[in-house]
Write a structure and sequence with these properties.
The chain has two domains: 73 residues, no CATH class; 230 residues, MetI-like (MetI-like fold, Orthogonal Bundle). It contains 15 helices and no strands. Helix content is 76%, strand content 0%. With 317 residues, the chain is mainly alpha-helical.
């Protein structure tokens, strides 16, 4: 197993290099650069050239890439053009906020989708399956921002039950109850956004498992539907969920851009969108690269988890 994990890590290194080249190349193709962002219309040419030297933009592209990659590897993400603060510091300050926002919605959607998917898959073509499938179709067709705006209008504006902006109420202590009240609406939005796709994924796995021999044996021994579903089928259905959870890891870093923006949640997603609007290239490149690292790390953790639960993969190591 150790050899398998080491091999997967070694395979991830060239992939990470390719992704870093793509991230750097996309920024280089942008119509504006750092100098255009901070320059004023009356700035002298000599000052612009001095700024290019300061930021290393007078060097060839491949030299800029090597220097940038060295800084990324050592954890030096540079400084924001807008705030003039360390990008690493800004991201570290916002990362806990993003995790607080994403994690409850993801866990809630995962639990509900497993139950709904198992029920729908075990009753394929039945009334419960049709109702769940219809709700999933509606959920997948409904834009996230529309759901967020409707919740804000109904529960924040008309009924005034929940706060709609930020993490805490201005002028009050940052208490846990106040945080929970601010968290309810965005959590509902993220749960609804994640629920349909995961439910259909579990439903498909359940339908596939229901054709296996072990299910037929359990039925022959007189086992009930609930016993078969939650004691036997669910174990095998949850294996593919490992990959789904691993692929969701980057969201804990990049956040939910739309949801964070609508609710003014001070997380990585809002930070990234603000950087795009202000052409803050050090922030954009850092978030893109860090997100790519988390995608690779999520896949790696999923492979390791598979290696631990599936003996066939352990034998490959």
């Amino acid at each position: 197993m150790a050899r398998y994990i080491i091999r997967r890590i070694l395979q991830a290194i060239p992939l990470l290099l390719v992704i870093s080249i793509i991230c750097f190349g996309l920024i280089q193709l942008a119509p504006f650069d750092v100098i255009d962002t901070i320059a004023t219309p009356d700035m002298a040419v000599e000052v612009r050239e001095a700024l290019k030297v300061k930021y290393g933009l007078d060097q060839p592209g491949y030299i800029q890439y090597i220097n940038w990659l060295k800084r990324m590897v050592t954890g030096d993400l540079g400084f924001s053009i807008v705030t003039h603060q360390s990008v690493a510091y800004d991201m570290a300050a916002r990362l806990p906020n993003t995790i607080i926002l994403i994690l409850p919605g993801f866990c809630l959607a995962l639990i509900i989708s497993i139950v709904l998917g198992l029920v729908a898959g075990s009753r394929r073509g039945g009334r419960a399956d049709k109702i769940i499938d219809t709700l999933c179709s509606i959920g997948m067709a409904t834009p996230t921002f529309w759901i967020a705006m409707m919740l804000i209008y109904v529960f924040g504006y008309m009924l005034r039950i929940f706060p709609i902006l930020g993490m805490h109420t201005l002028g009050q202590d940052n208490s846990l109850p106040d945080l929970i009240m601010h968290l309810i609406l965005p959590t509902i939005v993220l749960t609804i956004a994640d629920l349909p796709g995961t439910t259909r994924f579990v439903r498909s796995s359940t339908i596939s498992q229901y054709t296996e021999d072990y299910v037929m044996v359990q039925k022959a021994f007189g086992a009930g539907r609930a016993s078969i579903l939650f004691k036997h089928v669910m174990k095998n259905v949850l294996l593919p969920i490992i990959t789904l959870v691993g692929m969701s890891l980057p969201r804990l870093v990049t956040g939910a851009f739309i949801t964070e923006s609508i609710f003014s949640w001070p997380g990585i997603g809002t930070y990234f969108i603000t950087a795009i609007r202000s052409f803050d290239y050090p922030v954009i490149m850092s978030v893109m690269f860090f997100s790519s690292v988390m995608v690779i790390l999520g896949n790696l953790l999923a492979d390791i988890a598979y290696c631990l639960v599936d003996p066939r993969i352990q034998s490959m190591g």
